[in-house]
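Note to self: the last two entries modelled the partners one at a time, which told us nothing about the interface. This time every component goes in together.
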Amino acid sequence: MDTVSQMRLFMEPRSVAVVGATRQSGSDSFNIVQRLTGHGYKGRVYPVNPRASEILGIKAYPTIGDVPEKVDLAVIPVWERYAVPDLLKQCIDAGIKAVVVVTQGFADGDAEGRKLQDKMLAMARESGTRILGPNSLGVANAFTGLNTSFVPSDMIKVPIGVICQSGLFFQNLRSLNPLGKGIDVANGCDVHFCEALEYFEQDPDTKVILLHVEGLKDGKRFVQTASRVSRKKPIIALKTARTETGARAAQSHTGSLAGSVEVMRGALKQSGVVRASDVEEAEDLVKAFVRLPLMKGRRVGILSISGGAGVMQVDACSDYGLKLARLSPETQAGLREHLPAWMDTTNPLDLWPVGVHSGTSLSETAMACLSKVCPDPNVDGVAYTMGTVFLEEGLRVARSIRELMDTLDKPVCWWSGTGSRVVHEEELEKEGVVIFPSGERAIRALGKLNDYWQFLQESCKASRQSVMTHDR
Amino acid sequence: MDTVSQMRLFMEPRSVAVVGATRQSGSDSFNIVQRLTGHGYKGRVYPVNPRASEILGIKAYPTIGDVPEKVDLAVIPVWERYAVPDLLKQCIDAGIKAVVVVTQGFADGDAEGRKLQDKMLAMARESGTRILGPNSLGVANAFTGLNTSFVPSDMIKVPIGVICQSGLFFQNLRSLNPLGKGIDVANGCDVHFCEALEYFEQDPDTKVILLHVEGLKDGKRFVQTASRVSRKKPIIALKTARTETGARAAQSHTGSLAGSVEVMRGALKQSGVVRASDVEEAEDLVKAFVRLPLMKGRRVGILSISGGAGVMQVDACSDYGLKLARLSPETQAGLREHLPAWMDTTNPLDLWPVGVHSGTSLSETAMACLSKVCPDPNVDGVAYTMGTVFLEEGLRVARSIRELMDTLDKPVCWWSGTGSRVVHEEELEKEGVVIFPSGERAIRALGKLNDYWQFLQESCKASRQSVMTHDR
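The predicted structure of the combined assembly is written out below.
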């Protein structure tokens, strides 16, 4: 079976067995059968437990051999690590080709655990069965309601594929629920990043891939796969275990070898992977890449209700390799009529004196200025800062920004400043804009939207050149 | 009059005149009289407007000379800059010693504006009247309900004194409302950072000072004042206009000369000022310094529901100059009984397998482990990561952390992970804990709590040495 077909057994199974399902239920029982049936999964679910005849009203079977069909996916969540190889063998004997091992204490534990893990890998290799884990929450798929995690997590049909080595990413990230689809490779004894990337490469539900990496197993193969995939879909990577002590901690967490920081950086950059420096940037970038157009140059226009915030964003442009756009004479002339005589800067543009001078409301002022700055051919992307004291006005601005982005194919990143209400931000985002928690983070996202566009341009050029060389 | 007494006229006036008060009212009228009376200010308020007999039900006077008392503070918010010098003269003639100039278009505008500003400064110097601004929102004081800003802002009696060059800081910061007291020096033609620092140095309502700096005027005097003040109260500084383009933008914003980045860094460091890299870190540090004990060493204990989050925090320790604590043999032995046999790391401590092995709830597991790690003499501060799916359990943990911090005088920084609800965080913080938006930011705050403690130690040592030298 090819890799993608086998990964589909994990991600789109028609039937799932939970081998060693707990009989406990309730919010703190971490019962996988409860999670599996609680998200609307329509496939068949088989609890396996020799001491239960039913679990949560579903008929249970003493062993996986007793289950009346060859299920697509088995999940082994027992807590006793020494029990796992036997249960795995029973799954293999039952002809099952995809097994999630939740149990901990393998390469994430001690030398004995590493030996057990190697033994399971050998069994997998011999039989053609693939293992996800151990030490894994398994898989999640909002599009079918599948979730093998033992902790509650909300899923939403967002076009985001998460590949991680920590259950942290199966929870909601704060500013966006990214769990469209998720694969927790964890210790990654068998299924690893490349298999997961190949699945998402082919998956029509996935537009953006979020990757959490503690350590790579096969750097060369990763670069090869990631380079190909990131030409089709952006891959945002959060590389942790970046330091010597962090690398030691990762060995105890997933048994991962973090590898040299420089080699890793090089590998990710070469692959066109967009690096996030921390969890918060990962959240920002996932949102940005899902909802905003790419930024097709380095020149930023800044419109801000606060001159002080504008200064901070100008600083951030330098930090993230962007330039302050020099507005065209036409745009400058168009803005001029709204400005008091003493005001000589149009970028960054301080909207407050403009509004006062024009005598229009702040949202009207903002829309008038946005409609002049955004279409300027010298502007590749816009940072906009304005609070939303009055929600109705904010919604009008949001709709107008969405329209500008769609027409012009340029990103606008919004910071609502410090005075805004979080609840307003949610309302505004429903109109299709993206609001960032700080002005600097808005600029940082614009920078990454441009980095990825540059990667696409360069790899296009490279393939054109390689075609031309071939033609000769 | 000495500086502090004169600053009290700005911050604790018994009466305020608004010279050029608008007759418009309502939520979008930016009416200062409305703001002044809307926050419970008990002092006398005098609107001055030759075309109104009353404003918002308060008797208005044609000129400041007609107001029946010599007010402590006058605020000039007219939009026409050429009108300001005359109005200022009338205030000086009326014997007023403290004037806020809200009007824009001075050093923040063009050469003509700079000339006008110089003219006003000369008038102030000659008369002994002090000017705050121009281009300033003025002052705010939650303890008396005073607020001269024209934009709505919530104030809370928090022991935080804000000194800024942008109205941005008169709005609520997202995670903490810092507007206990605020002074917007803005263009700073006369009253500047040193006067504001001297006020907060003496102010019993202020425990922590937040400083937003675009440019210093008199570096030497600043270092002298800030060094003295920061020995008594921590000063958190956000320096913007850090880049060449940022510096140019600042000149258009407040007419500030940003100065050399290196000189500025040196000046702030020498003064014991705690640097925040951006608005978000400023928010984090204000919260941390108000509510947490200082960290009296570099050794961190990490307890985390997620092994992956633990790895990220270990990385962050390296980033911010902290060390992973080596737990004492007693602590390790005490933890050992809760750990599965295969688990060999106690720092960072992954709480999930501990809970599973002990068969206790996650909050009980956390409290048991916290009560062992926090008192360890090898631990100077603790980073704790746990979501709050069940609020009641979270509240119990919060109370127990607060008790540990009070008893041990060590900081505990909490990251609630990605799955938590913001509303829960607010509830938990009411119990006196501090929750950070990311694990890395929790560690960064611990680092700064230690940096400031080190500064205090060094300056103590220096003054002891200077006393000893003197004794000889």
